[in-house]
Amino acid sequence: MERDGLGEMPIPADVYWGTHTARAVRNFPFSGYRLHPAFVCAFAQVKQACARTNALLGYLPGERGPAIMDACAEMADGALHDQIVVDAFQGGAGTSTNMNFNEVIASRAAELLGGHRGDRDLVSPLRHVNMHQSTNDAYPTALRVAVLNMLAELEKIVSTLQETLQAKEAEFRDVVKVGRTELTDAVPMTLGMTFGAFAEAVARDRWRLFKCRERLKRVNLGGTAIGTGLGAPRDYVLAVAGHLAAITGLPVSRAENMVDATQNGDVFAEVSGMLKACAANLLKIASDLRLLSSGPDAGLGEIVLPALQAGSSIMAGKVNPVMPEAVTQAALRVMANDQMIGMAVGMGQLELNHLLPLITHSLIESLALLTASCRGLAEDCVPEIQARPERCRTQVERSGALATVLVPVLGYEAVERLAKDARQEGRTVPAQLVLSGIASEETVDRLFSPRQLCKLGFTPGEFEEVNTP
After folding, report:
1. What's phi and psi for 304, nearest 5 deg?
2. What are the helix (H) ranges across 128-257?
3. What mean pLDDT is reported for the chain?
4. For a surface tag, which of 118, 194, 405, 455 has the fewest beta carbons within 10 Å of its beta carbon?
5. Going by C-beta distance under 8 Å and a sequence separation of 6 or more, which residues neighbour residue 182?
6. Which contiguous run of DSSP H or E holds residue 51?
7. Does 312 participate in catalysis according to the annotation?
8. Does the reported pTM lie above 0.70?
């Protein structure tokens, strides 16, 4: 039996948590979502930094401080995650989560000191583990630490994706294909250009992710309830962020205005916006890969995606573009999360944002989804994409848009007639040019070569061998 200010509760003997956690589990059986491991590790590191600061300053004398630090370090290394059982969606701005950590860490520290699990006299969740803290500074600081770590991981896999797309850009540089605008034939280009454009978009994501990490480095740890530091000694307030930096290896520091850092979440909305931009790029890339690989016989069929799994339980031999489809769903979720985060940030009131649990869940879910999506594309999809050069070339030659190359010398109307005649007579544009005496086969080959199509604009004299009808 364990007692708190609301009364007595029976607590299972095989768990590390106590009454506060039990009440939260009972009150908030909402989603079934649990806290992400990255957030659990970050929260444990925040508690470790607080315990270290208190121990070094003499506020946790004896072995109690080191025992709490050791318990936190174990959790940061992956232990006891199954004991963090409160739902991701909860009232109280994260108080239930904070108390879940306090109780688990206290129980484990008591064990390390030779006591029994749940011995609150030996190690108290509130008097010792939560010393000089509030949920309102510990929780958002843990979110910042988790997001900083996850952003670094995302940035690395985005870099890998960029490199794989650039490799395909080089591999496909000589594959001429039809460009398309509004799903209709446009001027010719190369398949390498397509993948080069993908790579440029991802490169911008990489830069945005790097820059937005700067916004998260100022923490309100030590600000306690509303950022004023009330209830914490000055020497603790000034030192705790430095110990957090040492433990996490992150360049975090105390915010100059901790009242601002406690009540305002615009930084999280800004980071989410960067993630939305990344999701939008992934959505575009995934959609294009599906279109370019469609068919493969009755669609565009210009590329072949790797066969990752059987595509149908009845159509034998069918293979679906499953990786782009999964990425599409993840990207849409991230974009929806951004909408929620923006609304939740704006709905914070006065000195605290009471919707921080929703912000936390949505932001961390977005980071996890984008990391997995980029990894899926970079490792299991893009490297194995194959071009179909002959199909690409056939479609180029059949497209009347190919004649656009000659607009500068023949004029719009003449090229329009040329393309119409080729279509009506069942010929390709190059064949129509040769048959009509406008250009020789050698000139046609030069005008429609990958090198000619890739260069920026035309130069005077390159149409000298073209005859005006």
Report:
1. -120, 120
2. 135-171, 191-212, 234-248
3. 94
4. 455
5. none
6. helix 37-56
7. yes
8. yes
